[in-house]
Amino acid sequence: MRQIKLIWDFRGPASAKTAEHHDIHLKEFLEKENYALKITGFEILNDMYAIAYLVVEEADMIRFRDALRPHRGEVFETKA
Predict the structure, then answer these.
(1) Is the full-model pTM beyond 0.85?
(2) Of the candidates 59, 60, 25, 65, the residue with the CA atom closest to the CA atom of residue 42
(3) I want to staple 52 with a disulfide (CB 3.0 to 4.6 A). Which of 7, 19, 45, 70 is the partner?
(4) Which residues lie below 8 Å from residue 45, measured CB to CB, with a gap of 6+?
């Protein structure tokens, strides 16, 4: 089954700290939901733009999308 990467975009001088903090909340949410897949993280793309993300199974995407309201999503590709 495909996996979907749900993404939250943060812009501005505090974007890196905001994305890092959002990742903490995503991890807490996964623990609360007892969700088996535990892939989250954040990436600093430049000094004014960062993202936080959560990876879910495609079958669970609607549930997580409705609960967490990400800005966008994409198919998750594992790096080999």
Answers:
(1) yes
(2) 25
(3) 19
(4) 51
> For residue 78, what pLDDT band results from cuts at 50, 70 and 90?
confident
Torsion from C-alpha of 18, 24, 25, 27, nearest 10 degrees: 140
* 19-35: pLDDT as tens digits: 999 999 999 999 999 99
Q: Average pLDDT, whole number, for the chain?
A: 96
Closest residue by Cα to residue 4 from 71, 66, 69, 54: 54
Question: Are 8 and 74 a contacting pair, CB within 8 Å?
Answer: no
Residue by residue, DSSP assigns 4-73 as: EEEEEEEESTTHHHHHHHHHHHHHHHHHHHT-S--EEEEEEEETTEEEEEEEEEGGGHHHHHHHH--SEE
Which amino acid belongs to residue 37?
L
For residue 31, which amino acid is it? E
